[in-house]
Design brief:
single chain, 99 residues, alpha/beta, five-stranded mixed β-sheet, 3 helices, 20% strand, globular
C-alpha cells in the first residue's frame, strides 16, 4: 500500500481502532483485513487509532508483509492520539502537561 497524496479524490477519512477492530486484541492482522484496507485506500484516506505505542501497534499491523505501518495508512494515531502520523511523517504534537 504505497502512500498516495491526499488530493481532491480523497475527501473522506475513515479511522479504525486497532484492537478488536482491525485485529483481535493484541493479536496480528489477517491478510483479508490488509487486502480490504488496500482496496479501501484507493477510494478514501484511511487511518488507525490505538491506545498502545507505535511499536506495539506495528507488531500487530506489520505481522504480514514488510511495509511499515505508518506507510500502510494515510494517518495514524498512537497512544490515544498523543502521537500522530500523516503519510509516514510524525505530526507535530504538544503536551498539555507543560502548560
Amino acid at each position: 500500500m504505497a502512500p498516495e497524496p491526499l488530493g481532491q479524490t480523497k475527501k473522506k477519512l475513515v479511522l479504525f481502532d486497532v484492537d478488536d477492530t482491525l485485529t483481535p486484541a493484541r493479536g496480528p492482522v489477517s491478510p483479508e483485513i490488509l487486502e480490504l484496507l488496500k482496496e479501501l485506500r484507493k477510494k478514501v484516506a484511511i487511518g488507525f487509532v490505538g491506545g498502545s505505542d507505535l511499536r506495539k501497534i506495528s507488531e500487530q499491523l506489520e505481522a504480514i508483509g514488510d511495509q511499515k505501518v505508518v506507510d500502510m495508512f494515510d494517518y495514524g494515531f498512537a497512544e490515544n492520539g498523543l502521537t500522530g502520523y500523516k503519510l509516514g511523517q510524525v505530526l507535530q504534537s504538544q503536551s498539555f502537561i507543560k502548560h
